[in-house]
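Continuing from the previous page of notes. For each protein in this section, the sequence appears first, followed by its structure tokens. Read the first protein now.
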Amino acid sequence: MDSKSIRDLFEQVRKKELLPDEAVARLRHMPFEDLDFAKVDHHRALRAGMPEVIFGEGKTPAQIAGIFRKLALHGGNVLATRATLEQFRAVRKQVRKAEYRELARAIILYKDFTKHGKGTIAVVSAGTSDIPVAEEAVVTAELMGNPVQHLYDVGVAGIHRLLANRHVLADARVVIVCAGMEGALPSVVGGLVGVPVIAVPTSVGYGAAFGGLAALLGMMNSCASNVSVVNINNGFGAGYVASLINRLE
């Protein structure tokens, strides 16, 4: 339920295409719907400009399917992150058009193909092992209505790979950089572009990488002033924030 859908609803009532009681029935679940195990926020898109997103970890297949179905009935695009194939199968039984993006571990439903972003979001991964986190960012940004380009396996160990694709960075309005190990790539990218760079530390690396902590601390100490950092493996958070930035005039 966003501002456009509410205007459309009012317009249907004004034209007598919809009875007032029917309009009230559609609005009755605002601002949230209580499913006992979850309180589904149908008001979020109207309030924040972005719809509710489901975090899949810790939820049963039945729970995630129930939440996904309610969002599909009342909103636009639907996204569930950190989801399993088992959860997807449960969702698919209730929402036939739902899709599963295996690399991103995301369940998605496209209902609104409107482009809200003012420019392109570029998603960069340092190595092939960082791609799952990058794909979560890609799926999130696309579902939020942004044109997205991705550039994978261009880490600092072979910097010529990045420089050979510099045009992708030059064309972007926001850049997301996913890297593990020592997490140096966001600083390099930040020094090449004049737009916001969102750094995503990944848990890729040997023991001294401490599950992504080394990359996180390295990124937080970046000498590139246009670099901001989200949490370890948080491709969703990066895609969401990049979408908000890309909507600004």
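Done with the first. The second protein uses the same format. Note its length before scrolling.
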Amino acid sequence: MIGLGTYAFFWQHSERAPEPLTLAGMLRRTRELDVDLFQICDYAPLLGFSAAELRELRATADELGIRLELGTKGIAVEHLATYLQLAEVLGATLVRSMTNAPGSRPTIAEAEVSLRAALPAYEDAGVTLALETYEQLPSSTLVALVETLASESLGICLDPANTVAGLENPRDVVERCAPYTKNLHVKDFAFARQDGWVGFTLAGAPLGTGLLDYEHEVRTVQPDARGINRIVEHWLPWQGSYAETAARENDWTLTTLTYMKEH
């Protein structure tokens, strides 16, 4: 299933927006685009929602016919337990996370201990925990961690764009992680020369125009055959004004959805 996430509305729910989109607003926009899945990812205000606000959010999603997924950072046992509780309230069956979190960078041994303690509750609840590929953790190390824990409720959220900053080839990452992939974050990316030719910037690009070999990723992972959801994200730099940035963000979303449906 193809879905949108909070990173598809990054600037529109940011503090730079004159009237930031709420989660309910993002859900309504998702429905307007005929998309049936939304991942609430790295959305800090969610932890402050009251029980009534969570029920209202779930009711809005249900009314719109949108399934929910969750995303956070960190693998502290208490933190993962909190997100499992949120998942159960919101009807989410997947939580994406990363081994690192702001102020916390566990060793692999420490990560294994935390995950061993947290995973039984996820297994009992039928909720999948998907650890994302990113530049601070080599994909080979992430795969080894998932293999060691050997839980049906643990897998990988594959985003090869993130690993470029760790000098990993995206195609290699896709092929290495494919057997363990439980979720896909889809965003294209490209390098651009800086003024004066003093270095490069790695930033987002509309899907199909950058360096992501999306066709190879889909062939290798086979998301539809395996029931793996694909979540649209963007790395869109600020465009100088909110109006221009929001318009570009929406254009990229439409371009990405069209490209994914055609490929």
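What the second structure shows: The two ends are 13 Å apart (CA to CA). The chain has a mean pLDDT of 97. We return to this in next week's lecture.
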